[in-house]
Structure formats: C-alpha cells, structure tokens
Amino acid sequence: EPEVTQTPSHQVTQMGQEVILRCVPISNHLYFYWYRQILGQKVEFLVSFYNNEISEKSEIFDDQFSVERPDGSNFTLKIRSTKLEDSAMYFCASTKRRTAYSYEQYFGPGTRLTVT
Amino acid sequence: DAKTTQPTSMDCAEGRAANLPCNHSTISGNEYVYWYRQIHSQGPQYIIHGLKNNETNEMASLIITEDRKSSTLILPHATLRDTAVYYCIVMAMDSNYQLIWGAGTKLIIKP
Q1: Contacts of A103 in chain B (CB under 8 A)
Q2: Which of A45, B43, B63, B107 has an alpha carbon 20 to 30 Å from A113's alpha carbon atom?
Q3: Residue B111 CA: distances (Å) to CA of A20, A23, B19, B97
Q4: For B24-35, what is each residue's pLDDT tens digit?
C-alpha cells in the first residue's frame, strides 16, 4: 500500500540554524500539507500546496517558513532560523483530490525536530 | 476552534465494541464529519467520513443522528492496537479545506 514517507525521523539543531524537513507524498496525489504538533498539544495546520504554489497557510507559517516541491516526488519544509518554540513533531500529508466528500488525508510518520 | 466536542478519554475492553461519541450541534447542511486517529507518536490516520447516512468500511462504522448534531464512531471488535487518540472533525464543501483538530478522545483498550 502506498504511503507518505518523511526524513529524517529525528532532527536536532541549534537555535538560529536552518533546517529542511523532507517528505515524499503518495505518487498520484496532487495536494500536499504540513502540520506540526508540539508535544502534548493539538495538531496544527501550517500550509497546503497545490500546483507548485501555496494554497493556504496559517498564522504559524510566517516568513521563517517556506515550502517547495523541487522535483516530481519530494515536498520540503524549510525553517530559516529555528527557534526553541519550533521544537515539535512535523507531519506531512497528501491527498489525491480536494472535495469535502472525498478528502482523506494520508499522513507520514513525522519528523521530530528538537531545537537546542 | 474545533466545532466538535468529544469526551477526553474512554476505556474499552479488548474484543468489545468501542463507541466514541462526538457532538457537532452547530453543524451545517454542507458539512461532512471526518474521523481520524493518532496512535502514540505516529502520524494521524484517516478512518471514515460521512454526511448524513451511516457509513461502514473495513476499519469502523459511523452512525450520524438524523438531526446530524452528533455522531458515533464504532470500532466493532477493539484490539490493543486501537489504543489511540480519536479525532472528530467537521468540514464544509466550500471550506478552505483546513483540518481543524480538537483535543480528541483518548481511547484505551484494556486486555
């Protein structure tokens, strides 16, 4: 069964450093998403991406964040200058279509980002 | 904020049916009810969704009340691997397709 993959599973970085989190969505999916989950808290939407551009983004997704689909398979989230409060689990997700009656999102296993 | 209300936690005996309620009293006519779950430290997993009719798939059944103000997710024969946080989410057809996550219900399956 196809699945979303994410690398690395755990990333430790120092405050102020840039990090890139990588995701490989399911191959025939067209819509891609990033979420984050701070330990013990709710899952929070960050950004959605379609046709090589951002569709929606939340207030969390400020100028420090960017997303890119550099080739036909990878989808990346870059944090330019990490802060301690960026420490969280980051989940990538993808969907084939985007209608309310068919909107099953498939999530990757997540990347745990620890900023020290 | 999430437009649903769920109990914080529930227990269920292994092999029994787990019934997870969700209140969505302000749901409007074009909003679907989606259920996801998150097993500890893993990515959320889609379970099932519906509009007004009851739905069943290989994982679960979804029962939506006639007035659509509440629903119940049923795991017919719960196993220890079903221990997870279960999220009930409503989404409109004309929404911006952001999944708004609440705190969910922590379901613990006991042997």
Answers
A1: 32, 34, 49, 91, 97
A2: B107
A3: 42, 36, 17, 38
A4: 998 988 889 999
The DSSP 8-state label assigned to residue B17 in this structure reads P
Whether the ω angle into residue A2 lies within 30 degrees of 0, i.e. cis, is no
Give the pLDDT score at B25. 93
| Sheet of B105-110, strands arranged across | B9-13, B105-110, B84-92, B31-38, B45-50
Report the pLDDT value the prediction gives residue A103, as an integer from 0 to 100: 78
Q: Which of B57, B86, B88, B60 is CA-nearest to residue B74?
A: B60
Q: What's chain B's Rg over C-alpha atoms?
A: 13
Give the pLDDT of residue B31. Answer: 87
- Please indicate whether, in this complex, the C-beta atoms of B45 and A107 are within 8 angstroms of each other: yes
Low-confidence stretches of chain A (pLDDT < 50) are: none
